[in-house]
Design goal:
about 0% helix, 4-stranded antiparallel β-sheet
Amino acid sequence: VTSAAGFPAGAMTLIKTLTASSSASVSFIHGSSDVVFDSTYPIYMFKWINTHHATADRELVFQGTTDGTNFNVTMTSTYFYAYNMESGSSPTLSYDTARDQAQGTGFQRLTLPVRTDSDGGASGGMFIFDPSDTTFVKHFISRSGGMGEDSYAQDVNVAGYFNTTSAITGIQFKARTGNLDSGTIKLYGIKDS
């Protein structure tokens, strides 16, 4: 694909854009505020753009719901990251067992801690596959980048699955502590053909 014209018509559809403004959380729940999060698309994609946190050195996190209210679906995940300091010192590539989950129900971290400086923040994206399926678990893959707590460039990769055969009917994003000062989160649906 060398241009936008190379994409099949209607293959990716913007469903909803939400903007954080000193927000405790940002939620995409099927049926609320024109959100479609059902069998309409086999793949859903979220994009967070320049999320900025009110509290220093906190991560962007997410969790799913099966009832539209409780964000506590059991998940298993893997989390690894790379970073490099502005000075070029201490480049690191690491698997982080403190930020993954093994049959956990907490919010999954998507970034390393992010600075609250005016130039601090994070951007990234996540795919969720067939969330409305009632036979299999629901897989997700995420990648994000941003400015970390000690002025480093971060690259964070997370993958896993919601261990439920119930349909996932919504996703919530928030800062691990404090509010999301600003940022845009978009939900897209992707057709399989």
